[in-house]
Design brief:
Layout lengths: L11 E5 L4 H13 L4 E4 L7 H6 L8 E4 L2 E4 L1 H11 L12 H27 L4 H25 L12 H6 L6 H8 L3 H4 L1 H13 L1 H4 L5 H14 L5
Helix pairs in contact: 1-3, 4-5
Length: 234
Amino acid sequence: MEGEKKKKQSEVVLLNCKWSMFGNRVRIALKRKGVAYEERPENLAAKSALLLSSNPVHGKIPVLIVDGRAVCESLVILEFIDEAFAGAGESLLPAGAHDRAQARFWASYVDTKLAECAGRVWRSPAGAAGAAAVEEAREGLVAALRTLEAELGGKAYFGGEALGYVDVALAPFTPWFLTYERFGRFAVAEECPALAAWAERCLRENACVAASLPEPEHVYQFACAMRKHFGLDG
């Protein structure tokens, strides 16, 4: 009604690092929901006072600050965005209780299985011991990717025909595929062709994904720089 006061728009701030698959999940969700936000990049070697005060338990990104109140942990933040901005766009989580539980299970699988193996693939030191660690991590990573591919099945997206919670949780790992492939000496498209096609579909059909993720080659250069910084190449 004319003259009625408009609801005050929330002030939304995202503390993130552009290479972080966990922080970039939040980017995707905010863009998909059409939520205006300010992103503040964090230097993880010299964390800001805001980050440390907003997430005093872990001191990690991402942190979403809405009207001065912080929400931490990326999967928790995704659910918060879905609830707090329920009127903005489609829900990330499915409607049914069982389907929602399944989506949470697979998003957790990405974090507990995929992320751990993927990290060891590119963070293992050079040398014989490192090569053995990479081989073990690669086997675990490929197994996790195949498990996710089996769950995807013949669907366009994990939740069906549209980008949903599990897709948003997993999509930020896809720019890292090139890095995993180069250090692990395998090809995602050969091991998991349907999952590779899903990754391409996420970018092609969803502007919120394409606008939120770094270039794979840039990710690889970042990983190489991190290895050099930590003396992993001998």
